[in-house]
Amino acid sequence: MREIRTGVIPVGAIDWDRRIFDELIPLPEGTTYNAYLVRGSGKTALIDTVDPTKEGELFSNLDELKVDRIDYLVANHAEQDHSGTIPRVLARYPSAQVITTPRGKDLLVSLLHIPEGRITTVQDRETLSLGDRTLEFIHAPWVHWPETMLTYLREERILFTCDLFGSHYATDEPSIGDLGRVYWAAKRYYAEIMMPFRGLIRGHLEKIAPLPIDIIAPSHGPVYLKPDRILAAYRDWVSDQVKNEVVIPYVSMHHSTAAMVRHLEKALADRGIPALPFNLTVTDIGELAMALVDAATVVIGTPTVLTGPHPSAVYATYLVKILKPKTRACGIVGSYGWGGRTVKEITGLLQGLPVELLDPVLAKGLPGPEEFRALDGLADRIAEKHRSYGIL
Ligand code: FEO
Questions:
Q1: Phi, psi values for residue 129, rounded to 5°
Q2: pTM of the model
Q3: 18 lines ligand 1 (CB under 6 A)
Q4: Residue whose C-alpha is closest to residue 61's, from 83, 99, 35
C-alpha cells in the first residue's frame, strides 16, 4: 500500500465488477470504497470504512499494516458503502470510538444499530488531536445526505471529502496528478449524486476556500494530488452558467417522434445550437445526467401511449425534475394517435423546477409540413432564448 503522506495510508477496496449503485446508477467503470488510516504520534484514526461486501479487503490491509489499535473511526457519511463495515471494525477494535456529526449519529444508530455509547458527535470546526496531528471536522450537509461532513488533516493539508468530489472509477492507481481521464467519471458522479444540491455545494466551496489544501482524498475514485483541477471543475458545474446545448431525451414507437427529433436537431444545428439526443430505449442514464449538467434547454420527445406519455419519457422527465439541473427552458415534442394528456402529464412532472416551458409541438400520427414548420418555430424560440442568456 502506497502512503499518500507518511502515516496516511489508503486501506480501502476496489470494486472492479460492480455495475449498478443504489439499484439506479450505472457504474460502467466500477468503483472504489476508499478508507484512510491516519497515524498520529498518540492516536490512530480510520477515516470511513468500505462497503460490507469488501470488508475482507479492509481487514487484510489493516492486518498487513499490523494495526492493532484504532482510537477513532471517523464516519464522514452514513451511507452503507462507507459505513456498512463500521460494526465489524468496532467489534475488532474494542477501544475505537466513532466520530460523526449529530445527524450522523442518528443515522448510524438507525441504519446499523451501532450502540450510542460507541459514538461521539463533533460540532462544525471541532478538532481532535492525534498527538502530532490534528483532525478538523467541517460540517457539509447534503453532499448528499443531511449528515455529511469533511475531515481536514491540518498538518498535511489533506481534505477527506467522502462522496464530494468522488468518482465511480475503479483503479489500482490510488492517486492522480492531472484530472485527465477521471474528469468524465467525476462529472458523471457529480451529475448523478451531487447536482440536486448545487446551491449548497456552492456554499461548501466557499467554506473550504480559505483552507490550504494540498490533497483531496474522496471515498470513491483516485486521490487528487492537484486539487485545483477538481475544485475548478466543481465551480463550473455548480455555477449558474449554462451552455449553448439542447438535451433531447426521447422515445419513439413508430418513428414519428424520432422523425420530429431528427428535424429539430437539424433545425437547431442550422441555428448554431448543438443538440444532444438520447434515445431512452438504449440510454445509460448516467450519460443523460451528465449532459444535463450544462445544457440551457431540454426537450422531451415522446409518443402518446394509451392516454399519456410513454413510461420511458415519464422516467426521464422525473429524472430531470429530481436532479434539478440548471436548465432554463423545457419543451415537449411528440406524436399521438387519438388524443391524450401527454403535455399535461409531462408539464405536471416538471412542476417545481424553475424552467420556462416552451410551446409544445405535437403531431397527429406521422409529422408533415405543418409540424416541421412548428419545429422550426421551436428552434427559433430556443435560439432566441439562448441569445437572451448570452450563449449564442
Ligand atoms: Fe458513496 Fe453516499 O455513498
A1: -90, 135
A2: 0.96
A3: no
A4: 35
